[in-house]
Backbone:
């Protein structure tokens, strides 16, 4: 009976020991993926910002500028691209909508971002664009990979349409969550004007004919939860200028926008709660279950060997002929 139980325990030990690396190295890359139909929105606010009044072409102080950034998954486009890409992809249609304190549109820039649903590496396919201009991204955008490392990454900047390093600056604690802090500085760079302008009759083409150009710089900051690779907070110290040309009436430059853009508090709270939940799911696949199954396999193996050793013990020697029977201690009254 002990021999049978030992064999059963040994089989279970082998099963759980084999399941441990399978969960980590086989199941995790296939189960930890960004859903193709994901939709998310983030509201960011720059308080006491400087904004250009296109009616007078003068910069003025405003109480706030609001940026609404939405990302919507296009499932049909993702399935179509997967047929030729040979891997699971996500297609995000993004929109960055900027509005002034009066609620009127300042600019809106659409994007289409195509990437691997697990690694977050960009996938190049027809339709990849920023503000209608075809682009070929290198590096990540919006999200870091699962199990983010303590190193620099290449990050795509939609304004300049270029990729630049975003630097790991250390480990911190944000709202009770361990995060990696990353920072990127984009130097002053000439960039295209948004195709949709806030004033009727002003277009990028009409501005270009005046000789006026748009320049931009930013310091980009992210607090990234490393297990999920999701930013729990973001901030940009953002500056834009119009330079030269007849549109400025002889001035060398004028500020188009300057502000410290931060996530609105309610969106920070929602993001932190969501990331904490998703973090537990990823840890189940990468840590809790693999190590738990490995420990269980070791324990079952030890128990199996113990039962096997007990089953192999020799039986006690038979009593010798003529030997007196063992005596028992007298019972008490």
Residues:
């Amino acid at each position: 009976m002990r021999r049978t139980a030992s064999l059963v325990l040994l089989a279970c030990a082998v099963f759980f020991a084999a399941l441990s690396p399978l969960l980590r190295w086989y199941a995790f890359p296939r189960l930890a993926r960004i859903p193709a139909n994901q939709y998310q929105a983030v509201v960011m606010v720059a308080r006491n910002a400087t904004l250009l009044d296109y009616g007078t072409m003068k910069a003025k102080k405003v109480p706030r500028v609001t940026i609404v950034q939405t990302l919507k998954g296009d499932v049909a486009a993702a399935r179509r691209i997967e047929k030729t890409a040979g891997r699971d992809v996500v297609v995000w249609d993004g929109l960055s909508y900027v509005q002034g304190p009066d609620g009127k549109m300042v600019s809106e820039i659409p994007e289409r971002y195509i990437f691997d649903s697990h690694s977050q590496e960009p996938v190049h396919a027809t339709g990849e664009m920023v503000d209608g201009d075809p682009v070929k991204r290198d590096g990540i955008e919006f999200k870091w990979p699962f199990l983010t490392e303590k190193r620099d990454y290449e990050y795509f900047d939609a304004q300049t349409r270029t990729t630049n390093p975003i630097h790991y600056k250390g480990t911190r604690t944000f709202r009770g969550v361990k995060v990696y802090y990353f920072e990127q500085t984009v130097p002053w760079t000439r960039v295209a004007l948004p195709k949709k302008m806030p004033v009727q009759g002003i277009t990028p083409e009409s501005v270009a004919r005046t000789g006026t150009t748009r320049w931009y710089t930013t310091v980009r900051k992210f607090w990234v939860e490393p297990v999920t690779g999701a930013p729990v907070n973001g901030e940009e110290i953002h500056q834009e200028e119009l330079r030269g040309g007849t549109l400025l009436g002889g001035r060398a430059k004028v500020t188009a926008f300057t502000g410290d853009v931060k996530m609105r508090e309610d969106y920070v709270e929602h993001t932190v709660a969501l990331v904490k939940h998703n973090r537990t799911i990823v840890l189940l696949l990468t840590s809790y279950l693999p190590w738990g199954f490995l420990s269980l396999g070791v324990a079952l193996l030890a128990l199996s060997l113990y039962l096997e050793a007990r089953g192999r013990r020799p039986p006690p020697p038979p009593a010798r002929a003529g030997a007196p029977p063992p005596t028992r201690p007298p019972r008490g009254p």
In short: Residues 2-21+287-311 form one domain. Residues 45 and 66 are 5 Å apart (CA to CA). The chain has two domains: 2-21+287-311, 32-263. The mean pLDDT is 90.
